[in-house]
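Narrative progress, year one. The postdoctoral researcher (J.K.) led the effort to move from monomer predictions toward full complexes, under supervision of the PI. The following entry was the first complex the group processed end to end, covering 999 residues in total.
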Amino acid sequence: MKVRIKVIALLLCIMLTGVCFIGCSPTGSTEVASQFPEKPITIICPYGAGGGTDAVGRAVADVAKDIFGQPVVVENKTGGVGVVGMTASMNAKPDGYTVGMVAVELVSLPKMGLAPDTFTYENYKPIALLNADPCAITVGIDAPWNTLQEFLEYAKEHPGKVTVGNAGSGSIWHLGAIGLEEAAGVEFKHIPYSGGANPVVVDLLGGHIDAVAVSPAEVGSHVEAGKLKILGIAAEERSEKFSDVPTYKEQGIDLVLGTWRGLAVPKDTPDEIVSILEEKFMEAANDPKFVEFLENAGLGHEVLNSEEFVAKMQKEDKLLDAICEKYLETTE
Amino acid sequence: MDNLLIGLANIMNLKYILLIMAGVAGGISIGSLPGLTATMGVALLLPVTFGMEATSGFLILIGIYVGAVYGGSVAAILVRTPGTPAAAATVFDGNEFAKRGEGGRAIGISTTSSAIGGIISALMLIFVSPYLANFALKFSSAEYFALAFFGLTIIASISAKSLVKGLAVGMVGLLISCIGLDPMTGYSRFTFGSYYLFSGFSLIPVMIGLFAMPQIYNSILEGVSEFHIKQHVTRVLPTKADMKLMLPTAIRSGFLGTFIGSIPGAGADIAAFTAYNEAKRWSKHPEKFGTGIVEGVAAPEAANNGVTGGALIPLLTLGVPGDAVAAILLGALTLQGLQPGPILFRDHIELVYTIFAGVLVANIFMFIMGILGIRLFTKVVSVPKYYLMPTIFILCVVGSYAINNSFFDVLVMMGFGIVGYFMQKVDMSASPIVLAMILGPMAEENLRKALVMSEGSASIFLTSPISLFFIVAAVGTVVWPMMKAMMNRNKEN
Amino acid sequence: MEHHPLDSYTRLSRERCTMTAKRHTTKKQADLIAAGILLILGIYVSIEVSGFKKIASLDIGPAFFPKVLGGLLIVFSILLALQTVKNNNQEPVEFMNRNLWIVFIVVGIFSIVFNLIGFVFSSIMILMVLMKLMGAGTWKKTLFVSTITTLIIYGVFDYFLHVPLPWGIFEGLF
């Protein structure tokens, strides 16, 4: 009995102290922008450690800490295919100390009914785009097709027979394959693999599927080893690493689509702070150390400033509208 | 052979040795903390290795991997809380030792068999990796489904007292693994519209909740604080008699673990359960499993460390990771500008053999540290229960939080803690849930993928020899005990 | 035969249980409740799944797996109920007592205040309560032990493992 009373008393004390602290906790809205940043900056990464988004975030944080003169920490908040982490950074205190990693899913998830209405890129002020990787079509080295046209012709003759693997239903690679179907007027048999790009590439290596729709970087080592070949890349220009592979556009398919990762802050963040963040993170994004890192990791280096980044998201928003509609048709 | 000697000579460098040692020690600590897995340990240290040269960076990660897979067993044995999912099968017999006050003996067995499994896998990695790697590529959807189906029949042998209860609990586990977005269509199942449930429940909070929390609640209920079981440690190395019991099981399980590890997508957790099941199946006294016998600890522990080398086989030879940790190791190599696969063997053969030698050395250090650590580990649990139990509680909270930096996982852990407590009260074993959550997604996704590929024809599972083998083995697992029982009955008649 | 402290303890607790057996649930009742819960779960899943959308292009859609599992769960729970009735096990089971209720409530409070007052304070709180309920020494001593334990865990996770634990409203004060 005695114990119980004491327990309750203790709880009350702790809760009361907590309430007191709420009352007198300092409100940080009057901070002077010129002194920014005065304390460590946190980057919230919506995907797990070890993945591509995490790698980009950690690499930029590593370079940025010297530029800001303050630690830059990456915190992984995963769950809900990215919704949980991005929602957290969207709703963070708009003081510039919490920066969100954003990815193409920010635009695509709401269109597929996988995110709340409040989940939109318009709730962010973008800072900088750090990386982009296009969709591509890759097949086994022994496959009878050597160009995208040959592949698509075959698919046209055999509707619904060509198996195209992607890295998860509704993932950008799945949407990329649907986009290709739309643009070329063909029909694939889509096979989604969960757990990133690795399992699907393994199945292509083992000859269990006809093609994969992931980025060139994710098949790069196998292409170099002479086991796979890339037929086409959905980018504006040819990539440096695979300069002999023509783009979709060169092969008559008007489709530019892929994944990208960038940084953004909540939309109520003061403009002075946003411009400081933009300036410093742009410097980090163009730092040779960061560029080299992306190259080694097989990630595409594409940097855009805040304004260009907004334009890109607006463009993708329109493009993905049609593709996601098709996606919903085929799955529901 | 020359290459191997060069590798061994390379590794005999004070810096590398110290790095491996540090990695193994760190790995053991991470593994023994509930919630922190080998995957997480390696992922956490990955950024640190960016600044190192390739060999050093990779060796320290290997050390962590080997250490953490082993470390999980310490907590499983002493406090009945598997430090990692790979140690979930070690609880069955390991903790029975600790209940008898023989926790030290069980850790000795687990350490030795882990080292045996690890060394077998390292040797397989060195000598037969190209063959095994090509075999691993034969696995596609039909084969994975058959493997998962086979794995699920293990539920029958681990549902302690009542088969019906085990099966019912297993179904619940499989249903839990259905929660979230359907991997094939993105359709949301049982999420109640909550975004937190889109990726379903994470395995680790569920596992910790089911295993650790019931003990805490039980101690409260029974007020056991007046005493705790003293662990007698008279010797740290297994006795000759124990060795004799352990060796055949450990060697077999080591090979089995290497084999499972080399299949992309099947990791240490699956290997440990399978090895436990096989040890029980081929044992002369299967009924003694679960009561704290030597083979029951040796099998899962040799198998889960066997995975370490096995998972590196497809990684290094094909550039395809064999499990979740190997996927991060793949990242570590590519970030250093190295492309695993045939090119790595052509251009960096010295590095490859240094890694091979590193796996061997890491296992030797794991053995030494494990054996030396026994007295320390058992001392930790000799802390009075009224301090130990609450500390375990808070470690479980932090461990669950750390997985996604999300309090949601803590709530999941505590929710399943209460479920687990009541399950224990009605004699329902929690292990089928854990096994089902590991294998459920693998079974469902691959079943459906295989049927899409075969255009709905189920014959795909019987035309592939590998798949046929597992399906026959699965049916055998269920039918064999019944036949044995019938034969015994006939004999009596 | 080696005498083990656990033996005497279990005997003691068993005696205690049989003494109060009348007030306790029996194993039979407990198993029937469990079977009932599983049955309800199985029925719920079956109903929920029937509302899933059919996908024309797939023979086996998102509903297939849970449908089979829900059905099997119903079968197994009925089997369990039948088995339980047949076995008729009258051994008593003790589910709850006063201390355990307190712990459940405190764990509940902990879940609520964790995000509010952060890790350190909520951890010290729950450690103290649990330690006291399990029979640790004086309040002063438990306060000391729980503070030290909390700080060590916080330090290890924050500095070595880079897992920032939340401070709640105390964010930025330390």
